[in-house]
Design a protein that fits this description.
- The structure holds 3 protein chains of 3 kinds.
- Chain A is of the alpha+beta class.
- In chain A, 23% of the residues lie in helices and 36% in strands.
- Chain A folds into 2 domains: 236 residues, 3-Layer(aba) Sandwich (Rossmann fold); 124 residues, OB fold (Dihydrolipoamide Acetyltransferase, E2P) (Beta Barrel), CATH 2.40.50.140.
- In chain A, the strands form 4 sheets. Chain A has a 6-stranded mixed β-sheet, sandwiched between helices. Chain A has a 5-stranded antiparallel β-sheet with strand order 13-12-11-14-20. A 5-stranded antiparallel β-sheet of chain A has the order 15-19-16-17-18, with no helix packed on it.
- By secondary structure, chain B is an alpha/beta fold.
- Chain B is built from 14 helices and 11 strands.
- In chain B, strands 4, 5, 6, 7, 8, 9, 10 and 11 form an 8-stranded mixed β-sheet that branches. A 3-stranded parallel β-sheet of chain B has the order 2-1-3.
- Chain B is globular.
- By secondary structure, chain C is mainly alpha-helical.
- Chain C is 74% helix and 1% strand.
- Chain C has a two-stranded antiparallel ribbon.
- In chain C, helix 3 packs across helix 9, helix 7 crosses helix 9 and helix 11 runs antiparallel to helix 12.
- Chain C has a single domain, classed as MetI-like fold (Orthogonal Bundle).
Chain lengths: 369, 342, 289
């Protein structure tokens, strides 16, 4: 099953104005989204945000209340799951407990009524791909969590679907195994060039794996973009807060200086920020700054905005230190600094420090008239 | 194992204790036919004497005998049919009755005294008597029916209900052959076999508990049933005519008797005497219109009740059943075999 | 068995387990082992004139059990029970599965409906069926009223009536274990089957049935075994025309007064089931290995 041997090309998914209501509850609210062929797209959001419902409409387990879904050139809106050339890896893996690993993986091929030889050949190939040779005759309950995950993945990719759907497939694994599987999953997806839609509530996983991330909240897509873009330029306070960590500051615009703007926070702190186009006419804004972008030093530092502060709390986190800074204006900021104690001057609870914020790192996530 | 023994002993002790308590509690253990003693009569007795009656039922004389022999409950009154009473008397399982305590015993008509099952009249009191005869739905069956030979003809295939009692059925076949109903020998069974083989093909329902049901529901048009059932059918609709078979009819007498195990013989005598009262006996006749052996009670019945041909049939050729021994198992094997061969 | 490390307390735990089991063991001894023992002893005895058991050794009862008549009756009983079981599976599976897939509240309501018949005496319910099936009963009345048939169907006192009665009596014993199996079935497995291209029929045959098989097997056992020995229904609805093994055994106790022969029939009957059940179990163990 090398990429060149694939008979089915990855397909484009077009979700147009899709709404799904359960009774009076709207799970998915007028979502429009295109997934490019071969793209790894992640639906990220807290539980209840509609990401799983959206995925289930792609697999066919739910039918949209309104709107249409196209996979490739075909309108699949009302097509049952067993007529779609789409395969899914389930959260609990959903391996058939009464079948051996081989029979599990062969299931989809058997349903396609392929020849026995062909089935055996393709199962052998995919078992090699997921490094599970020799486990063919085991039952699922005789496998470890990681092995089960790989069987589930093998079972989903062996029928050569146009689209691969992943429903939090790594959430049942421990942290270390999860990281290893992330890398493997990404490698496989690249190698096979599969259009992949991945559902998770784990932002780190989303950032690692995705070509693009769709952050969902309350049935809608809040922001769609590459991992790096969404991380660095969150468009709403929700995205800033959900994806990574953010210091959110409410402020008022007090003046403009070309490409920059002066704002005053509620606590009376004045900052200079890079002013994007959309700030025209705005009076009140919410500003986000990532904790790792907050510079901390006992010496005076070079930055657009520099303030004296006191370290109110220090938490040792292994590779990093997490500091809670209390500025003179009463603003609390969280900073994450690399833990390089050998080179860096030691900063401890109670120390008086300077904190610096670059203008470009202060992102406006909300602007009101 | 020791523990187990102890536990079993404890269980047995508890059982005995409960038994004693019950007897001391003025209770009467009655073991009688199902649907044969009106609840009203039992309630009346309890109201009058304060003795609580535990009414356990059986559906055949053999069932009663089996349970009696198995032990278990110490019954105070049983209601055996004549031939079962005969067996019980022979096996010394019945206590003699003190007729002096039964002020109403004089009401029993003389023809029901000193019958073959209790020739010296020491152990039993007649409760009800009856016959086993033919019921004909005269709306459906136009040809005259006089005996078993007229019932069991191919024209009546799948239109017959009979009591589910192998000895009864075999005795009818014997009688059509001119053999006495109690003459149950292997040779005679062999003679009856071909007759029964034909009959079994014609019978639609075997039912001892309520053979009238199939007749009332119109499932069958002919029956060989207990006379009490026939009387109820006649009461329902006079189209159901009762015929005593010319070959000879089985007359049965159901009795009241006190087993040896009885722990409450005083109350048992009280109960029997209560049953013998004309006004009580009349209530029984009203509910279950068999032939009442109580002459005084008969006088209290209405003309219609006395005129019911199934309850009080014209005199015919009657005979009672006698106790039979191991041949019962040959009868059972014969009938099972024939039913199976169908 | 998974290898487990035996700790020093496991012996004490074992003792405690036995103590906790004691009431059940006593119950089993008193109501299963002892009666079976009595039955076994009786089966080698003879009877006296009255029908009392005489403790004189005899093989005769067992010789009679294997008489062709009784073997034929046994075969017929098995056949009726088998037909009943098949119909119960066919009718009970959809019901049990359907109930298991409802919301919890609705599930409890539906289960209650399944169990309500148990509140009424079995005999009363059987008589109700007679009212429905008799010549001028509800069913014939309805069919004739709707002009589907011109003459009433003869159902009562036929094998069909016996089967209807048996299916009615034992259907809940099929529905309940199937329900309990289906309730445990992870819906994701059914979805996985759909997802891999199995339509409703193949999903049912290849995933749902194998995974609910324990419930089906339990239901089959719960229906098949008692249906073989049932005698009340064959008497009431079949008119006692064709003897079943249950009737034959019952007759030995209540009509023929031949307890030893009844006991021998009972012993053979029980052994037959014990052996077939053991074989079934062994096959399952073998399949799992």
């Amino acid at each position: 099953m090398s990429a060149s041997a694939r008979k089915v090309d990855p397909a484009r998914i077009e979700i147009r104005d899709v709404t799904k209501r359960f009774g009076s509850f709207t799970a998915v609210d007028r979502v429009t989204l295109t997934v490019e062929p071969g793209e790894f797209l992640t639906l990220l959001g807290p539980s209840g945000c509609g990401k799983t419902t959206l995925l289930r409409m792609l697999s066919g387990f739910e039918t949209p209340t309104e709107g249409t879904i196209h996979i490739g050139s075909e309108d699949v809106t009302h097509l049952p799951p067993y007529r779609r050339n789409v395969n899914q890896v389930f959260q609990s893996y959903a391996l058939f407990p009464h079948l051996s690993v081989h029979e599990n993986v062969a299931f989809g091929l058997r349903m396609k009524k392929l020849e026995r030889d062909e089935i055996d050949r393709r199962v052998a190939e995919v078992m090699q791909l997921v490094a599970l040779q020799g486990f063919e005759q085991r039952r699922p309950h005789e496998l470890s969590g990681g092995q089960r995950q790989r069987v589930a993945l093998a079972r989903a990719i062996v029928p050569e679907p146009e689209v691969l759907l992943l429903d939090e497939p790594l959430s049942a694994l421990d942290a270390k195994l999860r990281r290893a599987m992330q890398i493997e999953l990404k490698r496989l997806q690249r190698q096979l060039g599969l259009t992949t839609v991945f559902v998770t509530h784990d932002q780190e996983e989303a950032l690692t794996l995705s070509d693009r991330i769709a952050v969902m909240n309350a049935g809608r897509i809040e922001q769609l973009g590459t991992a790096s873009f969404v991380y660095h330029q969150p468009s709403t306070p929700f995205v800033a807060d959900f994806l990574g960590e953010a210091n959110l500051l409410q402020a008022e615009i007090v003046g403009r200086e070309g490409e920059a703007a002066r704002v005053r926070t509620q606590q009376g702190w004045e900052l200079t920020i890079a002013a994007p186009e959309n700030l025209n006419g705005a009076k009140r804004v919410v500003i986000s700054i990532r904790p790792e972008k907050v510079l901390v030093s006992k010496q005076r530092i070079e930055a657009g905005n520099v303030f004296p502060a006191r370290v109110a709390e220090e938490l040792f986190q292994g590779a990093t230190d997490r500091l809670t800074l209390q500025t003179s204006g009463g603003v609390k900021l969280t900073a994450i600094v690399a833990n390089e104690s050998a080179i860096r001057e030691a900063i401890h609870e109670g120390d008086e420090v300077f904190c610096g914020l670059h203008e470009d790192d202060l992102v406006v996530v909300r602007a009101d008239e | 194992m020791k523990t187990l023994h102890r536990i079993l002993a404890l269980v047995a002790l508890l059982g005995a204790l409960v038994g004693t308590l019950r007897a001391a509690n003025k209770e009467l253990n009655l073991f009688a036919w199902s649907e044969y003693i009106p609840q009203e009569v039992i309630d009346g007795f309890t109201k009058e004497t304060g003795v609580k009656v535990n009414y356990e039922t059986f559906a055949s004389g053999e069932e009663m005998l089996s349970k009696m022999l198995a032990g278990g409950t110490a019954y105070d009154i049983i209601q055996p049919p004549d031939y079962v009473a005969e067996a019980l008397i022979r096996a010394s399982l019945l206590a003699p009755i003190d007729y002096a305590k039964l002020s109403n015993f004089k009401n029993i008509l003389p023809e029901f005294l000193k019958m073959p099952h209790d020739p010296t009249q020491e152990y039993t009191v007649p409760y009800m008597t009856g016959t086993v005869g033919i019921v004909v739905n005269t709306e459906k069956v136009k040809e005259p029916i006089h005996g078993f030979k007229d019932v069991f003809t191919p024209a009546h295939a799948n239109r017959i209900v009979v009591v589910n009692d192998n000895r009864e059925i075999v005795s009818w076949a014997l009688q059509t052959l001119g053999i006495e109903a109690n003459d149950l020998t292997p040779e005679n069974l062999e003679k009856a076999k071909p007759v029964l083989a034909e009959w079994v093909k014609l019978i639609k329902v075997y039912d001892s508990d309520s053979p009238k049901t199939a007749l009332l529901n119109g499932e069958v048009d002919l029956g060989v049933v207990w006379s009490g059932e026939a009387a109820l059918l006649y009461k329902e609709n006079p189209k159901f005519q009762y015929v005593l078979p010319v070959e000879g009819a089985h007359q049965f007498v159901d009795l009241l008797a006190i087993p040896q195990q009885s722990k409450n013989r005083l109350a048992a005598h009280q109960f029997i005497d209560y049953i013998l009262r004309p006004e009580v006996s009349k209530k029984i006749s009203e509910a279950f219109p068999y032939t009442n052996p109580n002459g005084e009670a008969r006088k209290l019945l209405t003309d219609a009740e006395r005129g019911n041909p199934a309850s009080y049939p014209p005199v015919g050729k009657l005979g009672t059943f006698r106790h039979i021994g191991k041949i019962s198992q040959a009868i059972d094997a014969l009938m099972t075999d024939l039913k199976n061969a169908r | 068995m998974r290898p487990t490390s035996r700790s020093f307390s496991s012996r004490r735990a074992g003792l405690r387990a036995w103590l906790l089991l004691l009431p059940m063991l006593v119950w089993l001894a008193a109501f299963v082992v002892v009666p079976m023992g009595i039955l076994l002893v009786y089966s080698f005895c003879q009877r006296d004139d009255l029908g009392r058991v005489v403790f004189v050794f005899s093989w005769e009862n067992y010789a009679r059990v294997f008489d062709p008549t009784y073997l034929a009756i046994f075969g017929r009983s098995v056949a009726y029970a088998a037909v009943t079981t098949v119909i119960c599976v066919a009718a009970g599976y959809p019901v049990g599965y359907y109930i298991a897939r409802r919301s919890e509240k609705r599930r409890n309501q539906l289960l209650l409906l399944v169990m309500i018949p148990f509140w009424t005496s079995f005999l009363v319910r059987t008589y109700a069926w007679i009212t429905i099936l008799k010549n001028d009963g509800l069913l014939n009345g309805m069919l004739q009223y709707t002009k589907l048939i011109s003459a009433p169907l003869d159902i009562m006192y036929t094998p069909a009536a016996v089967i209807i009665g048996l299916v009615y009596a034992y259907l809940p014993f099929m529905i309940l274990p199937i329900y309990s199996s289906a309730e445990k079935l992870d819906n994701a497995l059914v979805e996985a089957a759909y997802d891999l291209g199995a339509g409703p029929v193949r999903s049912f045959a290849e995933v749902i049935v194998p995974l609910t098989w324990p419930g089906i097997a339990a239901g089959m056992l719960l229906v098949f075994v008692p249906a073989i020995g049932m005698f009340a229904i064959t008497d009431l609805m079949g008119g006692a025309r064709v003897p079943m093994i249950g009737n034959v055994i019952q007759n030995q106790f209540f009509q023929a007064r031949n307890w030893p022969f009844g006991a021998a029939l009972g012993v053979v009957f029980t052994l037959l089931f014990a052996v077939s059940y053991a074989l079934l179990q062994r096959r399952r163990v073998w399949e799992e290995e």
